[in-house]
């Protein structure tokens, strides 16, 4: 794997710290990505997304969804069973987990729902009016007679 030095990028740019930090996170290979629990990310509309996390065996009380500094953190902690159970086969994993998703600017969490062993988190991209593209009308170079102002001498 190649290693890239992003120090020149930090010196030559202003306001792109998040992009450089994201590139640093992506390029580090000492952090292994967890594979539990599995999840899907789908685009449900032009500016709407849904993250679906498979959380079989977890109740709503065992799950938490938080947004911290442009990061969505989904965590699950199963309460200890008070009664001792004997399993012949245990294929449903209920181990604790924490999964982080980095949210882009202007992406907001609209809500979360839990049904049929799936945790669904709905996201919406809300671009502020000031950042939306706007059309600028082009005027001609001709000066209209109504726009002329008469000059008066001051003496």
Describe this structure in words.
By secondary structure, the chain is mainly beta. The protein has 2 domains: 1-32, no CATH class; 38-129, Immunoglobulin-like (Sandwich), CATH 2.60.40. Helix content is 11%, strand content 32%. Strand 1 and strand 2 (48-54) form a beta hairpin. The longest helix is centred in the first third of the chain and has 11 residues, at 17-27. 6% of the residues are buried. The mean pLDDT is 79.
Q: What is the strand and helix layout of this fold?
A:
Layout (H helix, E strand, L loop, with lengths): L6 H6 L4 H11 L11 E7 L2 E7 L8 E6 L2 E6 L20 E6 L4 E9 L2 E8 L30
Antiparallel strand pairs: 1-2, 2-7, 3-4, 4-5, 6-7
Distance between the termini: 80 Å
Q: What name is given to the CATH topology of the largest domain? A: Immunoglobulin-like
Quickly count the helices: 2
- CATH architecture descriptor name of the largest domain: Sandwich
For the secondary structure, the number of strands is 7
**Spatial extent as radius of gyration:** 27 Å
């Amino acid at each position: 794997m190649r290693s890239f030095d992003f120090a020149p990028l930090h010196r030559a740019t202003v306001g792109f710290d998040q992009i450089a930090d994201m590139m640093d996170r992506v390029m580090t290979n000492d952090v292994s990505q967890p594979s539990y629990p599995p999840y899907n990310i789908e685009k449900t509309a032009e500016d709407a997304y849904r993250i679906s996390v498979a959380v079989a065996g977890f109740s709503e009380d065992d799950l938490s969804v938080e947004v911290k500094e442009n990061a969505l953190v989904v965590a699950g902690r199963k309460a200890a069973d008070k009664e001792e159970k004997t399993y012949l086969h245990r294929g449903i994993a209920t181990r604790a987990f924490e999964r982080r998703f980095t949210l882009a600017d202007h992406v907001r969490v609209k809500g979360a729902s839990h049904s049929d062993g799936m945790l669904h988190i709905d996201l919406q991209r809300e671009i502020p009016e000031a950042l939306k593209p706007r059309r600028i009308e082009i005027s001609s170079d001709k000066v209209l007679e109504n726009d002329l102002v008469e000059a008066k001498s001051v003496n």
